[in-house]
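Quick check before the chapter quiz. The format below is the same one you will see on the exam, so make sure you can read both the input and the output lines.
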Amino acid sequence: MTVFAMILVMTLSHPASADGPSGAMTLGGVLEALRASNPELAAMRQEIASLEAAAAKASAYPNPAFEAEQSRPDAGQSREISLTQPLILTRRLSLARDAARAEAEARRRELSAKEASLVASAKKAYFAFRLAESRAQFEDSNRGFALNVLNKVQARLLVGDARNVDAARAKVELELSRFNLEAAKTRMLLARAALNRAMGRRPDEPLSFPSADALVLQPAESEAGFDRYLAEALAGRRDLQAAGLRRRAAELSLRLERHRRIPDLSVGFARSTESDVDFNKLLLGIELPLWNRNRAAIDEARSGLAARAEDERRLENAASYEVYRSWLSRGLARARVFAMRRNVLAVDELREVNSRDYLAGKIDLAAYYEGNRVFLEQNISYLDALQEYHDKDAELEQALCASLQHEQEDP
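Here is the expected output.
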């Protein structure tokens, strides 16, 4: 049976429900566990909480100052107790608060971008796992077929219809099929480890999925145009939104530094005693921004704003390129799937026909194995084409939300 027929039979006989059978996990379950348990996302959430606390800290009003003084000049005695409160007459506090909030919101957008990257990696691992399951089943059927051929060759050898070299070739093919089965199982375990890593689990923790998934079988028949994907990316890319928020924070920081050049006042009240005479005093102070440090801070904030604006333009250009490249790559992968599917259907009966021809003496064993090689290559190529399509589809989905440069490395 070909890979295409095997997956099709499994899908039709065991349709995958939204929740899956009892105890089984679906792709949606994988992504839900990733969002809830991934340690990298959890660390970023804690960082966002810290930034939100920093925003509240930036808007806090200055604390009052309390001073007590006592002295004994000559024969008299003097003492003074004063309480002074700085007065912020500008919008420095609200500007600092809004700038810190913009930074926290930008970090939240980066959290969404990182989540999109992890989701793309998890989807790749999920489809790699499901296709590795199909590959293992296919290789297991090949091993059984190779064993059956060896038995037939040995039976023909006993009656003189086969040669020793034919038996040796059949044994070699059987060992190769056994190794290919082990390699397929190893790929399946590696894909499972990648899924467990994404969910914050041990790499060897067991996973159970529905017996088939229609999403694995075929890509969509139609393909939307590039303009539609580009518009979606420019409107929804989290890194672009974060860049816009950081540019807004830089604008607020520049306004904040300009407000720092406006003098701040402080008022106070003092209760004094001088030579046994008690009296009250009102205090008024002013901070004079006379030196060049604030001018340098304004220049620094202005340069930071210009850099943020240029970075936003750079990200827009990068987003257009990444979406275009991903769109083209997925289209090519989709075309490859359809081509490989036609090839698989073309060689569907090749192995069975060659087996009958060999037993009938119409072809020799070398010709049989040549046909078998074509059968195996086309089926494996079909699985590889499906894996490539799902990889490119996940990359395009990620490119609509986040930069591909931050994609998680495969373990």
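If your answer matched, good. The beta strands are 65-71, 78-87, 264-274, 277-287.
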